[in-house]
Write a structure and sequence with these properties.
Length: 538
C-alpha cells in the first residue's frame, strides 16, 4: 500500500456510531453502537480509589459517565449488558461528578470548584460554614453520607487539564498559575484521606499522573490502573471486539472500497491498532479513529488530526533531545511512567499522550521497547516534527508520494532532486549557523525525518553495524539504500566511509539489490552539494 493512499467514501451502514457522544444515557437511548465493557466496569466498582490515565479521545469521559449512572442505580440504562447479569442490588449513591474538561480557562479552576460545591451544598446542606474550598468539600462528603445513609462516589474527569494547559508556555504568569493550581489540587485532594469513611468509590482520569511533584501526596494513594493487566482493555477496542461488534462495518468498508474483508482488517490494524496498556501486550485499537473510519468508509488520520498536540510541541521546543531516538529503544519502566512536569524529561508525556506505546518486554532486565503504536501516529507525528523543524514551503504529502515512487523504482536521480529541492525551500533562518556539530546534526536529522515520513519502508538512522554506525539505511522490498552524509565534505569521502567501515557486510546474504549513496551538504547553500551513487552487483 502506498503511503498517504487514503480512501474516499460516505457511510451507508445502518449502524449508529457514537462519535463525540460522552454521555452514557444519550448513547443508550440514542441507539448508538456500544462495545460492552460493563463486566470490566463492574469489576472496577469493587475497588475504592483509582487513577486511570489514557490518551485523549480514548473514552475516559464516557467511562466516567457510565459510572455515574451505575452508581445512581439507573438499571434501565444497562439492560441487555453483561453488568445486568452481575449486579443484583442496584443501589443509589450520592455522586459528585467533576468535569475539568469544561474549564475553558486554566485560571478558572477554583471558580469551577466553588460553583460545583455550591450546587451540591443545596442538595446536601451542612451546619458547617468553612471558607476554604477543601474544607467545604470535606463537609459536603459527610453531609451527603449522613443524609442518604450511603457513602459518596466522587468522579473527577481530566483532573490534569488545569495543569497541562499551563506547562511550558514560556509565560511567567502561566508558570505562577501552574504552581497555584498544583498547590490547590494537592490541598483539595487531601480531603480524600480525612474523609475516607464517607467514600464508596473515587476515580480520577487524565492523561498523566504527576509524580514527584506532591500532586498525590495529600491523600490515600489511588490504585493506578493505567498500565494494569486487570483493566488494560477497559478503554479502546480489542481485535476480538472489532471483528465481532463491527463485523458488518468491516464488510461495508471492504465492499465500498472494492477490497476483501481480510484486506480491510489488515488496513485497519496497520493504521489504528498497536496500543498496549500493560505488559501482556493486548492489542488495542484507537476507538475514535475506528468509529470515524466506519462512519465515513474512509481511512484517515482522525485521532491525530482531531487536536493539535500543543503541549507536546511546547515540550519539544524546549528540549534538545531527539524525539525520534525514543522509537525502537528499550527503557526502564519508571523512565516513561513517572512524569515530573518539565521539558527536561519529555518522554513520559510523549508516551502517556499516546504517541508512543509498549511494543515488547524484556522480562530478564525488566525493560520495555517503545515505538509508534501504528501508521496513523507515525505519519502524523513525523509530519508534524518535519513541518515544525524544517518549515518547508513544499507540500509534505505530495513530496512523500513522489519519494516513495522514486525509491520503489530505484530512481536515485529523482531522489536527489526531491531532497535538494526540499532543502532549498527551507527558510535560511531554520538552519544552525554557529556550531559545526549542530549544523551537521541539522542536515542529518532533516534527512532522517523525511525518510521516516516514508512509513511504508523500513528506515534506520545511525544503525549499529559491525564496524560503526551507518547514517541512514532505507529498506524496500526490492532494494537496500545505504546513505552516508558529510557536511562541507565530498560525496566520495562519504562513499569511502561506507566501504572502510564495512556497512554493507550485514547485507551480503540479502538478495535485494543494494545502493550506496554518498551525500555532501553545504552549510552555505543549505542543501545537497554532491551526490554519488554506487550500485553493487547482485
Amino acid at each position: 500500500m502506498e503511503v498517504f493512499s487514503y480512501f474516499c467514501g460516505v457511510n451507508s451502514n445502518a449502524m449508529n456510531y457514537p462519535i463525540g457522544v460522552q454521555d452514557f444515557e444519550t448513547l443508550r437511548k440514542g441507539g448508538f453502537v456500544y462495545v460492552d465493557k460493563s463486566a470490566l466496569i463492574y469489576k472496577l466498582t469493587r475497588g475504592h480509589i483509582y487513577f486511570l490515565g489514557r490518551p485523549r479521545r480514548f473514552g475516559k469521559s464516557l467511562l466516567v459517565s457510565t459510572l455515574k449512572y451505575y452508581f445512581q442505580g439507573r438499571k434501565d440504562l444497562f439492560e441487555g449488558l453483561k453488568i445486568a447479569e452481575l449486579e443484583n442490588e442496584w443501589q443509589q449513591y450520592p455522586v459528585l461528578h467533576f468535569d475539568f474538561n469544561s474549564i475553558s480557562q486554566p485560571g478558572a479552576l477554583q471558580e469551577y470548584i466553588a460553583l460545583s460545591l455550591e450546587k451540591w451544598e443545596k442538595e446536601y446542606p451542612s451546619d458547617q460554614k468553612p471558607q476554604s474550598l477543601a474544607l467545604r468539600f470535606r463537609w459536603l462528603l459527610e453531609a451527603a453520607h449522613r443524609k442518604t445513609g450511603r457513602q459518596v462516589v466522587v468522579l473527577i474527569d481530566e483532573y490534569d487539564k488545569p495543569l497541562l494547559d499551563l506547562l511550558e508556555t514560556g509565560n511567567p504568569d502561566d508558570e505562577k498559575l501552574l504552581q497555584q493550581n498544583r498547590d490547590f489540587l494537592k490541598d483539595f485532594f487531601s480531603v480524600f484521606k480525612a474523609a475516607d469513611e464517607h467514600l464508596r468509590f473515587v476515580l480520577l482520569t487524565g492523561i498523566t499522573k504527576f509524580s514527584q511533584v506532591s500532586m498525590f501526596s495529600g491523600f490515600n494513594q489511588p490504585d493506578d490502573i493505567s498500565y494494569s493487566s486487570r483493566f488494560d482493555t477497559l478503554l479502546g477496542i480489542t481485535e476480538e471486539e472489532l471483528h465481532t461488534v463491527f463485523a458488518e462495518s468491516i464488510e461495508e468498508l471492504a465492499d465500498y472500497q472494492g477490497i476483501t474483508v481480510e484486506q480491510a482488517k489488515a488496513w485497519l490494524k496497520d493504521r489504528y491498532d498497536g496500543y498496549h496498556f500493560s505488559d501482556r501486550l493486548t492489542d488495542i485499537y484507537n476507538p475514535f479513529s475506528i468509529l470515524n473510519a466506519f462512519a465515513n468508509n474512509r481511512l484517515d488520520s482522525y485521532w491525530f488530526s482531531s487536536g493539535t498536540p500543543s503541549l507536546l510541541m511546547r515540550l519539544l521546543a524546549n528540549t534538545n533531545e531527539d524525539v525520534m531516538r525514543y522509537t525502537g529503544q528499550y527503557f526502564d519502566r519508571q523512565t516513561f511512567i513517572d512524569y515530573k512536569a518539565d521539558a527536561a524529561t519529555p518522554l513520559p508525556i510523549i508516551f502517556q499522550s499516546g504517541y508512543l506505546t509498549i511494543k515488547a518486554v524484556d522480562k530478564e532486565f525488566n525493560t520495555y521497547l517503545l515505538d509508534f503504536p501504528n501508521r496513523e501516529v507515525r505519519e502524523g507525528l513525523v509530519t508534524l516534527l518535519t513541518s515544525n523543524y524544517v518549515q518547508p514551503k513544499e507540500n509534505t504529502k505530495s513530496w512523500v508520494v513522489k519519494m516513495v515512487k522514486a525509491l520503489r523504482t530505484a530512481d536515485l536521480d529523482q531522489v536527489r532532486r526531491l531532497f535538494t529541492s526540499f532543502l532549498a525551500d527551507t527558510p535560511y533562518s531554520m538552519r544552525p549557523k554557529k556550531d559545526q556539530k549542530d549544523r551537521e546534526l541539522y542536515f542529518h536529522y532533516t534527512f532522517y525525518l523525511l525518510m521516516r515520513l516514508i512509513s511504508c519502508y523500513t528506515v534506520y538512522t545511525e544503525k549499529q553495524l559491525s564496524e560503526g554506525r551507518a547514517d541512514c539505511i532505507v529498506e524496500t522490498p526490492q532494494y537496500v539504500y545505504i546513505f552516508e552524509f558529510k557536511l562541507d565534505g565530498t560525496a566520495q569521502e562519504a562513499l569511502a566511509q561506507i566501504h572502510d567501515r564495512g556497512y554493507v557486510r550485514s547485507y551480503e546474504a540479502d538478495p535485494r539489490r543494494k545502493f550506496l549513496v554518498g551525500v555532501s551538504f553545504s552549510s552555505k547553500t543549505g542543501t545537497t552539494e554532491e551526490w554519488q551513487v554506487e550500485k553493487l552487483p547482485t
